[in-house]
Amino acid sequence: MSPSQLGLEFTPLEPHFLKDPFPFYARLRREAPVTFAPAFHLWLVSRYADVVTVLKDARTFSSRDTLRPPVALPREVMALLEPAGYTSDYPLLGDDPPAHTRLRALVGKAFNQARVNALEPRIRQLVSDHLDTLLGGEPRAELISELISPLSMSVMTELLGLPASSAERIKQWCDDEKLFFVPIPLEQHLRAARGVADFRRYLRELVEDRRKSPRDDLISSLLQARTEGDRPLDTDELVALTCVLVFAGHETSTNLIATALHHLLRHPGVWGELRKDTYLVRNAIEETLRYDSPVVGMMRTTTAPVQLGGTALPEGARLFLLFASGNRDESVFEQGERFDIHRASAVRHLGFGHGIHYCVGASLGRLEAQLTLEALLERLPGMRLAPGEAVSHLPNLVHRVPRHLLVEWDA
Fold it and tell me: Which UniProt keywords apply (predicted)?
């Protein structure tokens, strides 16, 4: 089969592909490691070494348009978005040096390890509170909607200093923005656009409020962040950056915890093994990030003609770096198709990216997942997947998103 023919089989939004994309990724690595998928106008990059090569070379492989919607937004949609200050530019994710260097340094000043460490007692309390609510009902729950998603949003609102009462509304706005990355009818697109526009206006008001009345939260710290020789963040930059932090922090954490629980519960004996040795929780999180990455991949654009994986790419080629494929590359991970919470090499995964764009919130995501799993192991040691539960995934090009996770436990 020629590379172009194999690229025709890239149908990431179809149910059969969403259920198990990994055999297709394995074929890509074997037969066509860099190949064009015409339906999305993307070059698929599937081998670990090639993905890392791209992520290390920001000069040749630009991050501009990293999260540009795969299809141009309709004119009627843009008419709703532009007055609210929306652009498809996503700071940090979609910046190249030197702009990225400046922004990363400013974020690093405000969102450092000390801030994450200081959040740990509060995250523990939030986990406990959400579990109290869960355990106050029937011994059966859909964990994503009833625990994981509300908890992740609570952590983000706590970090950014957003009112807890706005959590449900912010979640809906994030869901609206996700729809920009899948084909939907115009009327649905317009409804989503109204939500995205409202979100930008909400964040602008919040930033201006913190500018006038700083508090002990991340937005205030970002406003106050300074680095030698660089200007501070302006309102437009901070609105866009806050949107990225809310969206990435909530979505990635939700998907990581849900995916971890899915695999820990569906593989026989693994949940029981963790109960006996909770020290393994941290490595189980790394293995989840490797085995079934919450972020399928990221885009890059070539700035000049270049060879990659034996394939000639023109200037302006848009690449889709398949982290989910690289994370199962047999040349890096022996028996990569196997879920193994003891895997020593799991930490080499690409689940949080690599290089200058390595996820700025990785330590927070790991901490949130760790504290949630440890609390569930302590308080629901007999938790199990509900009989007949088959996890499916929402259609999304970039995020691997479980629809639901139904569990039960002994009363």
Answer: Heme, Iron, Metal-binding, Monooxygenase, Oxidoreductase
* Angle of the 149-160 helix axis to the 167-178 helix axis, nearest 10: 110
Contact 36, 42 (CB under 8 A): yes
**DSSP single-letter state for residue 295:** B
The structure tokens 């290390």 sit at 56
Compute CA distances 160 → 130, 154, 215, 326, whole Å.
19, 10, 10, 33
Determine the average pLDDT of the residues in 246-254: 88
Torsion of CA 297, 298, 302, 307, to 10 degrees: -20
Identity of residue 243: C
**Percentages (nearest 5) of helix, strand, coil residues in the chain:** 55, 10, 35
Tokens read off for 181: 């990355």
Of 122, 76, 151, residue with least CA distance to 216 = 122
- Out of 284, 324, 359, 369, pick the active-site residue: 359
φ and ψ of 363, to 5 deg: -70, -35
Contacts of 193 by beta carbon, 8 Å cutoff, 6+ apart = 73, 77, 80, 81, 176
pLDDT by residue (tens digit) across 216-235? Answer: 999 999 999 887 677 888 89
Tell me the two tokens of residue 314.
């023109």
Q: What is the pLDDT of residue 180?
A: 82
Reference 128, options 407, 363, 371; nearest CA is 371
Q: Which two tokens stand for residue 143?
A: 């964990």
| Annotated catalytic residue 251 | yes
Active-site option among 58, 248, 258, 369: 248
* CB contact set of 263 (below 8 Å; sequence gap of 6+): 270, 288, 291, 292, 339
Which domains, ranges and CATH numbers included, belong to the chain?
Answer: 77-297+329-408 (1.10.630.10)
Rounded to an integer, what distance in angstroms lies between the CA atom of residue 179 and that of residue 295? Answer: 16
Band of the pLDDT at 302, cuts 50, 70, 90?
very high
Token duo for residue 22: 């990994």
pLDDT mean across residues, the chain: 92
Q: Mark whether 359 is an active-site residue.
A: yes
Catalytic residue among 62, 253, 293, 325: 253
Cis omega (within 30 of 0) on the bond before 150? no
Considering 146, 158, 177, 251, which one is annotated as catalytic? 251
pLDDT in tens, 342-381: 999 999 999 999 999 999 999 999 999 999 999 999 999 9
What tens digit of pLDDT does each residue of 16-50 get?
999 999 999 999 999 999 999 999 899 999 999 99
